[in-house]
Fold this sequence. Notes:
It is a single chain. The chain is an alpha/beta fold. The chain has a single domain (about 1-245), classed as 3-Layer(aba) Sandwich (Rossmann fold), CATH 3.40.50.10320. The protein has ten helices and seven strands. The protein has helices at about 10-15, 15-25, 50-65, 100-115, 125-130, 130-145, 160-170, 205-210, 225-230, 235-240; strands at about 1-5, 30-35, 70-75, 115-120, 150-155, 195-200, 245. Strand 2, helix 3 (about 50-65) and strand 3 (about 70-75) form a beta-alpha-beta unit.
Amino acid sequence: MFFHAHPDDEALLTAGTMAMLAAEGHRVVLVVATAGERGLAEMEPGEALGETRLEELYKSAALLGCARVECLGYGDSGLSPKGGSAEERPDNAFIDADTEAAAKALAAILQEERADLLAIYDPAGGYGHPDHVQVHRVGKRAAKIAGTEIVLEATVNRDPLLWLLRVAGRFYKFPPEFDVRTFESAYSPGEVITHRVNVRKYTKQKRASMAAHASQASGGDSDRTLAVMLKVPRPLYRFVFGTEWYVRRDLPPGARLTHPFDRWPT
């Protein structure tokens, strides 16, 4: 089971792993906490962003081979740090959810599916989105309630990412609100990463999963992350996005495993 905050998060961090496991014959279940209704997008009159993003989620999940998709139904807390003020957030914002209640809802699905593995985010929530941090808290507690043995924290190797951003900054002018220094505490350093999963064989599905979230390729005053990623030439895309990283806290930091179900020591 893969637990994400919003539709499109699965495409960015875990799509290759999901496609790989499905191709190997595993039952893959995708759960999102929210419909992502507060994301940036250019919508037609009368369109509801949350409904559109869930439709895109189902399309993405089908492309990756998922057997089941669930949304816990919480409200999107938004992009502001800590979700912004309480007045700005919906009444049922995920960031305000009771952790134990949300964990029990997720644990019920874990138990129903008899899941062997749960993928969540690292404690930083990747780049710090409040809903991503909440996914870590809720997912960690849900796994304990359900007795799910393997918990993987989806992340990115911070070390090459920082180097790449600094080099790119010499040739590309980032938007004013983009501060490379924020990535110094985002995601996880290479020394703690336990799993480096080679998903190059499944980058076609990963790219298609990203493309399925068309509403998130536009909107805002600058280039969106998905739009930039989809512009990467296919041969380079396979190289850049061909690895997915995870941390499993009950294994030695830096253990170099290559499959979610690898045992330690191998």
